[in-house]
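Obj.: predict assembly geometry.
Materials: sequence records (below).
Method: joint structure prediction, all chains together.
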Amino acid sequence: MRVRLAAFTLLVLFGWHLSASGQGLQYEIGRSATQEEISDWDKTLDPAGKEIPEGKGTAVQGKIMYQESCESCHGENGINGSAPELTGYLRIYPIHTWDKIYRTMPLGTSGAGERDIKLSPDETYSLTAYILYLNGMAAENDILHKQNLPAVRIPDPDFIR
Amino acid sequence: MKNLLDRRRFLTHGTAMMGITLGSIKAAGAQTSNESSNDVLAYGGRSRFVTSQRIADIDETHRAFGRHEGMLTPLQDSMGIITPNSLHFATMQGYYPPDINPDDHKLIIHGMVDRSLVFTMDDLLRLPSVSRIHYLECQANRPEVMEPTVQGSHGKTSCAEWTGVLMSTLLQEAGYDANAKWVIYEGAEPGKMVKSLPMKKALDDVMIAYGQNGEPIRPQNGYPLRVLVPGFEALYSIKWLRRIKVVDRPYMGYQEIRQYTVRPGRQSDERTPFYNYENGPKSVITSPSGEQQLMSGPGYYRITGLAWSGGGAVKKVEVSTDAGKIWRQADIEGPQHKMAHTRFNSIWKWNGEPTHIMARCIDEQNQVQPSRHQFARYWGVDPDKLPTREQRGSGHHNSIQPWGIRENGSVYNSYAII
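Observations (raw structure tokens):
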């Protein structure tokens, strides 16, 4: 009995403890995440664009990649494909177009939703530049990068649904 | 009890919409007796005489891609408040549900936390759990002038008992920063949907669910893990959950900015998008409903339906059988859980004359479900053009759904008339 009580006391003292932030009981379940596995998934962009990775690209470069990897679904010039059209699809900030391409394109063929190809920031800048170009929001040789992407505005705000 | 309503008409209609046949169901009935009893023993099927099923919710954006937005629950056949898992509505954003092996699945929680953590499904099963009955409703679930049936207009809501861990438990386990005011979370599906949620709600009653009505969540509903945000538009309840990030501001993820925000702007200079949270008080008569038939002529019929509210429990439901002139309190059948479907019934003696029947929900905050005209006034739009494109963008639509009864007993959608 005494042994069991002692063991229980030890459990209370060392097995469980209050967190530093005073948020109550911790169960110490779950392992620490590695920096690598966090950065592999942590690709959502804050609204101000501070979290966009460095890189650059132009519509001319993007068009080549588009024709190789995107056109079969999205169609020539972003229209008349089997996948959603890419013109008139932008909403408020081109940063979201960047985010969508970087996190989800091209769609994977594996059932678990993981992609076969993951795009680099440069490739994503190029494809974003090409889509902006298709929507009349960039010239074909404009270099798109971390500093100027958040500043791009769509020409007609009333166009937004 | 005599079968009062003829569902055959509806089923014919539903089958045509789906573009598939009921052949597979009938074939099961034609199997040898040994095979069918094995099926029944291993995983119970239903009677071959029960044929209620979901129908596809076609979205033009995805139609060409060979994909559909989701599947609609056959509310016209529903009983009680729990939706069977096979019939739970599902919205998939045009993507196929991922085929996730739970042994490989992991949930990362990171951002403004003391410890970034990875949980396996086994880890989550070791944590304290809760089971709660809650509805889910897509923000696009609304009366539609052109939808003939309740399944077509209101089939994007269902109700289940969900089992899982409270999000607050995980946040405490990771130790969240006192300055963190929001969480964002992401699914593992091809579209990697992201949603922002205020920390206050995350710490209140949000679940990280792995169970649905006593079994693992179905793939279309987020297997093996999903978020369940009680009372909020279902778009908050991200499926196939793989990541929670603790942050200090809303993120306006791609789908949020494209579809899931309200921009009141067109008429004003206001261009700031904002989120909707709770669904308003809402109800719908599920039977008799559009395309059904009062088979027995004048006499007593049971009006039955579902009511729910993002504001809490349903306090009462009122039913009118004279196009909204007189409202009588309906009987509540069974439990009245918070943010859950609540079943109501009202026995009605039909005199054989054409009329309109409808229900309205009053929740525990005394919020009353609005009529079409009240709803249009609130949004400042033309009631004859609901849902308008401007209002559609806001999602939220909880106006009253009337059903018209013709002299011959046939039931039709009279939303445009009342």
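Conclusions so far: The domain at 106-267 of chain B is CATH 3.90.420.10 (Sulfite Oxidase; Chain A, domain 2).
To do: check interface contacts against the pulldown list.
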